[in-house]
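Run folding on both entries below.
>entry_1
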Amino acid sequence: MTAVRAATPAAADGPEHVETPVAYDAILLASFGGPEGQDDVIPFLRNVTRGRGIPEERLEEVAHHYRAFGGVSPINDQNRELKAALEAELAARDIDLPVLWGNRNWDPYLSDALREANERGYTKLLAIGTSAYSSYSSCRQYREDYAMALAETGLEGVIEIDKVRQFFDHPGFVQPFIDGVNAGLAEVAEASKVHVLFATHSVPTDDAVRSGPRDRDFGEGGAYSAQHLAVAEVIMSDHPGIGWDLVYQSRSGPPTQPWLEPDINDRIEELAAEGVTGLVIVPLGFISDHMEVKWDLDTEALETAQENGMLAVRVPTPGVHAAFVSGLVDLVLERRDGVPTAERPALTPLGPWFDVCRPGCCENIRLGFKPAVAGLAP
């Protein structure tokens, strides 16, 4: 019996880094999903919040964000673009690996992608989750959904799924932000006092402190915060005279539940009181311009900055930046070719991160441990 559920033989015993080549059949691009019309919005939000007892009136409040954009989240089109870009990069390198795409919360679902894999005779899949960091919602929940999709489709024991490592400090992910910050600082150079805010999705504090492996102390905020801070330090290393902070956005829990802070809008108001007149907002926690970027940053945060008399810009997410797409293919080749750990690029002392998640990684204290692939139990 293998130690890692649904893993290829190279990963089945749970090494931190897999240095054995694996002949994968296809890449599984896994994302969050989003509505593509007004009629999709509430059903989509019900999918996202299933089992959490969120009242309909709260869903309607969140639905307002999507309805402001015609009920269409940009995330699905962005995944289509990323899939096409990956396919083009693979073809340019003469790598014969098809890309399948499945979502956790909307069509096409992960179960659809697995059925397609089965129909095409693919049995060894390498998953790329569209989130770079370690936490329950950005890593473990994806791994649980892979396991759930295998169970739903009856393909347990037929299809094996590994995943690439969390890529928060891979050069391909970081370089687009370096480029963006350089350009953003040039745009606000006329301001008398400039500050950079690195923004990411807030998560419950209980989940944050449990992010990452249990045998390492990452300090307050767990691996999730530590990874963001480490990447921000790399990006700002060429700008020693510029102040910066890590801030959070998009919290959705009840007021009684602690979530990571400070909120980006609160921090903008504090910075205004401190005399900051130029602001560069960096969506460090996101790979593409989906709804949390378009609403929480481009609408709310930029409005807060404007109301406080600041010259503010929001830099791009990696999207289909050439370095990012190339970096994702490099991550695939790490696993396909069993690249030695010492030869894997990582821009912070925290990396290169694990190929096979460690026992107890990224626990959700409210839901407990559910079956998950690509990691050691629980």
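>entry_2
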Amino acid sequence: MTTLQANPLPDDLDRALLVGRVWRTGANAGPAVVAVRGGRLVDITRHAPTVADLFERRDLLAIVGGAEGTDLGAAHALMDAALRGADGADGMRLLAPCDLQAIKACGVTFAVSLLERVIEEQAKGDPSRAQDLRAQLQATLGADLSDIVPGSEASQRLKTELSARGLWSQYMEVGIGPDAEVFTKSQPMSSVGHGADIGLHPTSHWNNPEPEIVLAVNSRAEIVGATLGNDVNLRDIEGRSALLLGKAKDNNGSCAIGPFIRLFDGAYTLDTLRQCEVNMLIEGVDDGFILEGSSRMREISRDPLDLVAQTCGAHHQYPDGFMLFLGTMFSPIKDRDAEGGGFTHHLGDKVAISTPSLGTLVNTVQRSDAITPWTFGVRALYANLAQRGLLVPE
């Protein structure tokens, strides 16, 4: 990997409040909640047995910033080991930084992703048609969709016009209509972390990474922090039918989150996120393919607070909190295997998603049926915590 991976931790690490999870071995074998202090991992599980429990505490910032815990070593060392596919010291390994939270995701919240979803729908899963459809849609739509405020009078006029021309789409409806698309991306405990393999369904032949900002939200609908995510996307399967969204989105290893959740405090806030730029790098190991891109959160069509409100409220509760992907900011379309064929993954691709305030999330692309199966779920977690005497925090 190149410069995007140069600093896997935030540039201002000395000021960042970071929360994550690691797997410990030995007498304390099992998942541990950790804080990163001075670049070192500190086990704070005795204060909150799960990250979901930690995010419910009113003294969250104080616990992460200074509560007593066990020093587990340098964060960089464990992250470097993860990239090599190896365990760290004493068999420790990095996990996704969330646990019991529901994994939710928002779709078509950026103009570029809206256009690409419409192309998938029109192409019916055939990547060879994408280039011509992209040119036709751009010529037909004319105006920059990023200037359209969802649910506004202007969006309704555009809907009327496009409908009259037979061009309205279900993706247009959630992209510029009043209601956001919010779906269940993955199951609690199923996300993979930094350095892990991510999985593609074996029947997919047109797919891509989706680099996103992910919010950490507690049961009171309070946004407590943010991290990075890869909402792995199967364009051919969803393109055949939006009713196949579950098959396209929720597979073994199809959701990567990490490396750590950065908590909001006086210096790092939602406004910081609103101004951040997210970079992505894809490197092919079999063909030397390189694709780099970046996008800015200020181009999002719906404010993060609105997306949280549409996800959680009087209409829907999340007693264990939730992680919320805010939407794809960059859709890779660079030709790879053939002219006009656009982009699709090769097995072994390295994907790095980065922003200075959150660090870098790196994963390797494999087939979902070839990577390690997911076996450690909620029942296993609570059995493990009970065995370790950690079900009641101090």
